[in-house]
Task: structure prediction
Amino acid sequence: MTHATATVDLMRPPFPAEPGSGVYSNKLGMWVFLASDVMFFTALIGTYIILRFGVSQPWAHPNAVLNVPLTAFNTFLLICSSVSMVKAFAAISQGDQRGLKLWLLITILAGASFVSVQVVEYIKLVGHGFTPAGFREGSTLAEHAVSDPVKYGAATAGLYGSTFFTMTGFHGFHVTCGVISMTYLYFTKVLPGKYSRQDYRGIETIGLYWHFVDLVWIILFTIVYLI
Amino acid sequence: MTSVAATTRVPHAHHDDRSFLRKYIFSTDHKIIGIQFLFVSLFFLLLGGVLAMQMRWQLGFPGKPMPGGGLLPESMAAGGVILPEYYVQLVSMHGTFMVFFAIMPLLVGVYANFLIPLKIGAHDMAFPRINMASFWAAFAAGLLMFASLFVPEGGIRSGWTNYAPLSARPDLSGVTIGQLLWCVSIVVLGLSSVMGSVNYITTIINHRAPGMTWFRMPLSVWALFITAILAVLALPVLQGAAILLLFDQTIGTHFFDPAAGGQALLWQHLFWFFGHPEVYILILPAMGMVSDIVANGSRKPIFGYHSMVFAIIAIAFLGWLVWGHHMFMSGMNPTLGSSFMVSTLVIAVPSAVKVFNWMGTMWRGNLRFHVPMLNATAFVAMFVIGGLSGIYMAATPVDMFIHDTYFIVAHLHYVLFGGSLFALFAAIPYWFPKMFGRMMSERWGKVHFWLTFVFYNLTFFPMHILGNAGHMRRIYDPTQYDFLKPYQPMNEFISIAAFLLFATQLIFFVNFWYSLFKGEKAPQNPWEDNGLEWSLPSPAPHGNWERVPTVYRGPYEFSSPEVSDRDYLPQHEKRPTDREPASTTAPSH
Amino acid sequence: MHWWLPLKGSTFAGDIDGLFLAILIITGIAFVVVEAGLIWFVIKYRQRPGRKAFYTHGNTRAEVIWTTIPAVTMVALGLISNHYWVRIKGRNSVPANAYPIAIHAKQFEWQVTYPGADGQLGTPDDFTVRNQLHVPVGRPVVVHLSSEDVIHSFFVPVFRVKQDAVPGMDIKAWFQATVPGQYELGCAELCGMGHYRMRAQVFVHTPEEYDAWMKQAAQEAKQ
Result:
């Protein structure tokens, strides 16, 4: 295997000026992957838009079902983790190992906290009776929906549950993957000090992913929790 | 076919001390991965064919016990007679296997992997380990789909398009586990496809040899590049749709459940938004490889190289705007139907340009009809029929009659069999020497070609006539309808032609396996081609080149006036007039 | 067994068949030109000793010509097709005086509801007949399609009419039968294992026959 690895290493920068894009392969590959992920979320968000605006009955008011302040805090947490990711990147591009270790750790912790808060939110929602299938029969939410069908979107609860859990769930899955990847890099590359001022591609690449996940969340938060 | 001495220095084979497992099973070598895809997808091609034969038996001889049908359990074929529930499963799984596990991996999995690094002058893919993961994900997806044939109730029964709400309601379709397996398999296949495509795109952008400018790339590489872009953007949409379908059945969501406000047409929009780019994923690589082979067989530069490239790009772009033409009769807004009709008709133009350019390439050539060239010529001839028959269904008023009839079945088989599969019958023997170091038999290749060409047309052409009669697709027993009873002899005829067509394919499989072990040893450049891959020994060694070659010209310099002693001029051959490319810092080791 | 389209049984069947014929002529010419050219090239330019292929990379004028001709043809075809499409399936294509019939599709049958004597759907004199579509000749009929369970497709080959019946949607399709007789209605969208036997009889009656049938059928439905 050493042979193949050596072959690949040779294809890393610096590249010949032409041909080649001047963008190293890991980063380019990540951009291509993100383009594909955009399409995945487009399918989910498009589905949400079609279903939500295709039905004639009222849709539940976000405040009625969801804990908007908690999720607003969670959103803030995720935005902060994007900032700390930028700080980690800035640190290593200056060759600052300590800065990298600190800021990447903060990013990982913030990401993990985001997922944890989301899990807690899910547990509470399900406890209140909000499930992917709609309002569970006999639950508090189901009772509320009977008394105020407009505010709670009684007729569209099934679609609401379907789209809410699918979109936020897959976003949470993406965050989890990011946290796992960063943790892996933290122990295999960051702590041993394998990144340097000359080579910090891993950090830049995972950073791209992390900012993308953050951006998706801002869109989801807006359309699911605010509108 | 004459073998020629290498005109350039022969790179000496690399010392290769990898274990068997790393070399052939968990290999990261793009060539081995391509070969792995080849074996697996040929298996699925054969399986898809076996399913088709059972359908043809039922259609040709409804109610008669199928030979060998006694081997099937009573729940599928009672007393050897195929049951309706098994028939719809055959329809659905034939389409699923052929599209997702035979044609797509044969074109993309095999040839994107095998050809891209070899043709652009790279040592391997940009991400060899992701590439390996891509194969194993596809393999896992294939196993899951294959397994669905053997679970209780068997595979899906709602067509390869798996329209909701039929697919979302086990109580209506009669399939529970098979449907879940389908969804999971498609999600895993999507992962495989995205991993592969990320690799292909990055490799082509970043790892071309010095001098391999964009417009010196062979059309096969161009086609695979654009295909990878389509795949990377389209497959996630299908994954998304499959996940929604899975959730409807497992965690109780209501995406496709009209009773709870879900929308039945949502599946179709998602599926065809993926599905139409998918159609081009299934034909663009074939077009690219046929371009390479037609130029080689004609001993002429490809006619209108640039317009060929732009036609590929135009098809890929327009391919995103035509999905609604699968839904003209679905109750979609008819005004949308008008715009989809226009975009669909317009997409015929770049396809026509490609056909004329292939003809232009053959015009005043010096045509060598080796087996790949025979099949490539047949591709052009058959693709024309498939392309032209598409115009009938693009015209919405006519589609109102022929939609979901055998006319569609005829059309799609003219594109997928007459197009993609003939291209593969050209590509497989063409690059076989570079894969395995041996030649496939020319004689048996020719026998296979002619029999296939005849039986293929006898099978699929009459389906147009059935379609004109109003013969619906996917019906178990056409004799249920009085107006179809007179057409039963034609169904019988088609079935017999199909059996002969299938039998003919056994020649190909025997030729393939025999040549693998006993075929004539292949010279380095058996087809006298210009591509970079032919500068390597056959089979190409691990790591490809010791030193990446420098490229001095396009890939189609056949019969160039620059050389007088032969009619080809390889891309890497330096002529006295050639200047070195701007940057020649080729990586070496 | 015919080799051509079935009987023209509706007012727009002729238009559709005409368009089919026009496309057949256009594609037929393209087919003959391309295939004959290919065969000619294959024979004329096959490899011979001493021949060298003509070295050319293309010809811009030829390429412009063979891009323009298909482009113009396709756009023209699109415009012509759209003219008929709007008349047959357009939003406002259903004639105002069309006779209403409701068809409810379910696995694996067609439930046809007739408006009864008053000619209005949704009134008490409506009655439903299973798997029989009776329509008067020479009068536009609008079919209100709905589905109980999965997607089905209403297809009467002699009328050249096809329209999916989608659960959760109410879709209209219209036609005007021109030839009295007995025909078949089939399901054109895979709807399950019984898809193949989801068929119904179509009866096109003269107005007098239709009235007589209506009286009798309404009577039978009441019992």
